[in-house]
Amino acid sequence: KKASIGVTGLAVMGRNLARNLARHGHTVALHNRSDQRTRDLVEEFGSEGDFVPAYSAKDFVAALDRPRQVVIMVKAGAPTDAVIEEFAPLLEKGDVIVDAGNAHFADTRRREAALRERGLHFVGAGVSGGEEGALHGPSIMPGGSAESYESLGPLFEDISAKVDGTPCCAHIGPDGAGHFVKMVHNGIEYSDMQLIAESFDLLRGAAGFEPARIAEVFRTWNTGRLDSYLIEITAEVLGHVDAATGKPFVDVVADRAEQKGTGRWTVQIGLDLGIPITGIAEATFARSLSGHTELRASARGLSGPSRTPLAGAEAERFADDVEQALYASKVVAYAQGFNQIQAASAEYDWNIDLGAVASIWRGGCIIRATFLDDIRVAFEAEPTLPTLLTSGDFRKAVEEAQDAWRSVVSTAVRLGIPTPGFSTALAYYDELRAQRLPAALIQGQRDYFGAHTYQRVDREGSFHTEWATEARAERPA
Ligand code: 6PG
User: Fold this and answer.
1) Rounded CA gap, 332 and 64, in Å?
2) What is the CA(58)–ligand 1 centre distance, in A?
3) Of the candidates 21, 246, 26, the residue with the CA atom closest to the CA atom of residue 137
4) What CA–CA distance (Å, rounded) separates 398 from 17?
5) Considering only CA atoms, which residue is closest to atom 4 of ligand 1?
6) Direct distance between the N- and C-terminal alpha carbons of the chain, in angstroms, rounded to an integer
7) Are 65 and 6 in contact (CB under 8 A)?
8) Among residues 86, 184, 276, 344, which is most buried (max CB within 10 A)?
9) Residue 128, ligand 1, Cβ within 6 A
10) Which residues are catalytic?
């Protein structure tokens, strides 16, 4: 029997995707650069379904039914190009190559265009949910041609997570759309993680709670509107005690957050598109800052306010306020992320359905949360919504949360607890709702030093003021 799909690259993600496919009754061809991995998979998990191990690219391709569907799960960058070049010459018109890694969307666009010329479909598919997700049901974000989704879609929908019976997989749009959306997913993931980490820092530094107590707080939050995978695992991590020292685990881990690059890409592209994704940017920079060990050591002696933690009922109230600040900041971060997807969709003609993106992020992926169903509802009601912040329920929730939000940020500032995520989110909210921004003054400065001209609120056209002359006459530019 021929395989309906093949997976090449059998490290843990590829292996788990292959097993997931087989467990759903699909015959899966297997291939890996070194044969041992292929043999191991068949030996350990062969009983889970129908696998066709192949020990050469040629045998792998020969094992596949038409249109052949080859899923590549290798490292982003040069290794992906190498594998594409290994398989593309063996494939025929109409066959499909899927890159299921975390590729940069610009690479995906380049590869898609090149393979389209050769009559092949190239699908850049975002896959989220880590190892467990890949095995038990990830969220899948495939880009590429609509035609490729006809054969690939049913398989991917089958193995994806389900929420209320709806698969967490949908065709995102042409060429790089899928990888772009996955990249923003990761950017939002950074932002969510940073906001949760700041909440922890505040509950400890300002309310004086111990990690075990904070774990309880997160557990409670997880029963409400913040219900999400990241809050759930945060409670687990905070509740964990290090066996060797008996200390809270979080106190024995080096405080340097690492990153593999998707957050950084999101920020870089946010700048290119001119979309202020400040929540993601601060989260990414916060990780960078944490890693500057020597810089931090040299600055550790800088003075700050003395901290007297809140106590009793005040501390309890503060914890409630942090929940509200976290919620409001999260709405801002998602609003920004969706704006970035909207902008890229317009720029590249992807025609991305934002409601569908929210829908497939409800399950399987790292940022999965009940909150995403509210976002789905908002975009389904108004697909061209300018910002989540103005959609009915979110607007109301954020407006109601804002007193607490402001109070938390002020407390943080007063006590010297860094909250880049909360603060930038609040600043963004205040910038968006401002009647006037000081950008007018910046235009004046630019015109002063560089004759860069400005526009007026009361007349059409561009103007320049003769700053060097006493009269400071204004003339049309
Ligand atoms: C996912 C994750 C995954 C990756 C993390 C880690 O959606 O399953 O996002 O793609 O493991 O993004 O990224 P960093 O190492 O950059 O934190």
Assistant:
1) 46
2) 32
3) 21
4) 39
5) 130
6) 74
7) no
8) 184
9) yes
10) 182, 189
